[in-house]
Write a structure and sequence with these properties.
alpha+beta, Cytochrome p450, six-stranded mixed sheet, Cyt_P450_sf
């Protein structure tokens, strides 16, 4: 394995199973050289301790627009991960922590508890529409895709009429191969223009939403953010919070229905919903690209020397199958606790919206178990197809009946 330079992402036919190479890499070559879609080379990490350590290490930065950083895809110079807009939010240090403190107030457990009834109403309405259209239905298109964007639009005070445009922008900006550079840049410009107008409207007429609250905090001289930072924060929350959760809803339900005993266990004991969501996040074999990091100074990982300028890709999904941390790692255990998975990253840059994602996933399960207890996959699990090209992994469709 160590002699060969793998192509990354590692192709895999089975929609819900991990590629065999993960276990081989963790066992024999945990710091591996890989070729990215752009043709550039990077270093792939697959062991739990290595991934966790690197994600928490400030020497590994998100400076992916450095001249010697690897380009992630062939169509652009890194897209979402290293766009000029990504640089507007401070990358590290006190500036980043200050931004997280201001924005993080909207992602507390208390705030999520307050939002839960609204999320449940959205999910119930979407299930109503699913049932009305009849089975078989695509759970991803009917529930997984719209629910997170409706919730994010609510948080940003965006009118319901604009939700579909938000869905399109989110999809375009997170896709590494499906869209060309011109289409991605056009979507980014449209999104930017929309958010500029939306922010101006919020300044004139504040509401009970995240953007209004960030405006009310004042500018940098008052301990708040610049207008451009507020605008980019709104864009970042949509892109980070929509497609990831939309895909995870589909994958989670597919995982649970692929072995009927899992769904039956939840029906018999809904108190398992919380640990089931955590285990679905850990067990996800198709979480996408992983987190890229750029090394500003030479260092070593697991005894391997990495020169300055190395681009490292942390595969949280491979790390989450590490037997040294998770007993029986290749078995989905709905009661697993504790479950220190790395699905949301680790350290100072761990996912700001993880409480939101967890709440959405829990609510979806609560509503589906209550409304559609006879839910099942409408196709054999072997026929489920992965979506190629997304920075976050997903299934093309999740056909279900009830």
């Amino acid at each position: 394995m160590s002699e060969q330079v793998l192509h990354y992402p590692i192709p895999n036919e089975a929609a819900l199973e991990p590629p065999a190479e993960w276990a081989e890499l963790r066992g024999g070559c945990p710091v591996a050289r890989v070729t990215l879609p752009s043709g550039d080379q990077a270093t792939l990490l697959t062991r739990y301790e290595d991934v966790k350590k690197v994600l928490a290490d400030p020497r590994f930065t998100r400076l992916l627009n450095a001249p010697d950083a690897a380009r992630l895809s062939a169509t652009d110079d890194g897209g979402l991960f290293n766009s000029e807009m990504a640089a507007i939010i401070p990358d590290g240090g006190e500036g980043h922590q200050h931004w997280r403190r201001l924005v993080g107030k909207w992602f507390t457990a208390k705030r999520m508890t307050a939002m839960r009834p609204r999320m449940a109403r959205i999910a119930d309405t979407l299930v109503d529409e699913l049932v009305e259209r009849g089975a078989p239905a695509d759970l991803k298109a009917g529930l997984g895709f719209p629910l997170p964007v409706y919730v994010i639009c609510d948080m940003l005070g965006v009118p319901a009429a604009d939700r579909d445009r938000f869905s399109y922008w989110s999809d375009t900006l997170l896709n590494l191969t499906r869209y060309g550079k011109e289409e991605i840049e056009a979507a980014q410009a449209e999104f930017f223009q929309y958010m500029s107008g939306h922010l101006a409207a919020k300044r004139a007429e504040p509401g009970d939403d995240l953007l209004s609250e960030l405006i009310a905090a004042g500018g940098p001289e008052d301990g708040g953010l610049e207008d451009l930072q507020i605008l980019v924060t709104g864009m970042a929350l949509l892109v980070a919070g929509h497609e990831t959760t939309a895909n995870m809803i589909g994958k989670m339900v597919a995982m649970l229905l692929s072995d009927r005993s899992r769904w039956e266990a939840l029906l018999a004991d809904p108190s398992l919903i919380r640990t089931t969501v955590e285990e679905s996040l850990r067990f996800d074999a198709d979480s996408g690209f992983g987190l890229p990091r750029y090394l500003r100074e030479e260092t070593e990982v697991s005894g391997t020397y990495l020169p300055k300028g190395t681009t490292v890709v942390c595969s949280m999904a491979a790390a989450n199958r590490d037997e040294s941390v998770f007993a029986d790692a290749d078995r989905m255990d709905l009661t697993r606790s504790p479950n220190p998975h790395l699905a949301f990253g680790s350290g100072a840059h761990s996912c700001l919206g993880q409480a939101l994602a967890r709440t959405e996933l829990q609510v979806v399960l609560e509503v589906l178990l209550r409304r559609l207890p006879t839910l099942e996959l409408a196709v054999p699990v072997e026929e489920l197809e992965r979506v190629e090209g997304l920075a976050v992994g997903g299934l093309r469709t999740v056909p279900v009946r009830w």
